Amino acid sequence: MAVDPDFDYELLKRLTEARGVPGYEDRVREIVREELSPHVDGLRTDAMGNVVGTVEGDSEYSVVVAAHMDEIGFMVTHVDDDGFLAVDSLGGFDPRVLKAQRVTVHTEVPGPEDSGVEGTASRSDGDLPGVIGSAPPHTLDEEQREKTPKTEDVRIDLGLDAEAVEERVSPGDLVTMDQDTGIVGEHVTGKAIDNRVSVLALIEAARRIEDPAVTVHFAATVQEEVGLRGARALGVDVDPDLAIALDTTVANDVPGFGAEEHVTELGEGAGIKLKDSSVITSPKVHRRLREVAESEGIAHQFEVLPAGGTDTGGLQTSAGATPVGAISFPTRYLHTVTESAHVEDVAAVIDLLTAFLDSETGEGDYRL
Q: Which Pfam families would you find in this protein's record (predicted)?
C-alpha cells in the first residue's frame, strides 16, 4: 500500500465492496449493525431499513448523525429472447460511463457456478457475473457513433444461453457494478465511495466518542439516491435537536474545469457544507464546525454545491425547524466505479465529526 491511512481502511474496503442499491441495503446494513453494536447503548432498525445506534448522553438534548448506505444500481425489467437483460436505473447514473463495465446480477436462484468466483467482491450464491457490452467502434456508422448514450439502451450479457438466463433471472432482480477498492497514490478509489466512506466515518466516530454530554444517534440511512427517502422518515421518528449529515461531494479539480468549478479540492481537508440544491445549512451550525476545525487544527474547506442533494435536506424538512449542518468528503468522479477520495481528507472528516460531537453540550443556541 502506497500510504498508511489514518482510519480503518479494511472496514472501508469491506463497506464499499458490499452491494446495496436503494431499498435493498441488506448486506451493508449487516456490516453496520455488527460494527456499531459494541459502541452504542442501543441499536434498532426501522421499517424502511434505517439503522440507528444511540449513545446516551448526560442530557435530553439529542444530535443525529446521518450517512446513507445505498449505492446507485439497476433493477432488471425484462429478459429478451436471446437472454440479454434490460434494466431500469436506481439512482443517477451517467450513461456515458456504463459501456464496457462488469456487473453482478443478484438473483434469488443459486447456481453451481456462483461459488468461488475469483476477482469479484462480495459475491454470494445467487449472484451472476455479467457485462454491459460495447460494440467495436469500427463496426458503427457515423450516426451510431454520435448517438447520445441512454440508460434505457443498456443491455447486460451474462454469457449464458437464453434458456439458462430465463431459469435464473427475473424482472425485479438487482444489478450492481463490479469494482474492487484500492489505494492509488494518496487516494482511495472504487465503487460506492459515495457514500460508504461516510458510513465509515459514522462508525469511527461511534468508536471514538466517550461519555458525550448529549445523546447521539448514529444513523445509517436508506434510499438517499432516489430522493432522500430514508432521512425524511428518520427525521420524524428520531426528532433530533440538531442534525449533521455526512456525504461525498464534487471535486472537479481535474483537467477541463476552471478553478471556479472545482467545488472542493482533494487534499484540502474536510468539506463544510454551506449549501446544495436540497439545503442551505444553518449558519450557526457551519460556523461552529469551522470553529471546531480551527481550534483542533483540522484541515477544512467550504462547499457550495450548485446541484445535487443530500440527507441534510431530508432531515431539515421532516420534523419542523431543525438546525442542520453537513460535513462532506471531496470526491472525484462521483457516480462512477472509480470514485476517488484523498486519504487525508477522509481522516479529516472523521476527526472533525468526532471533535464536534465531543464538544457539543446542548447548551448553545442555534436559533437565528
A: Peptidase_M42
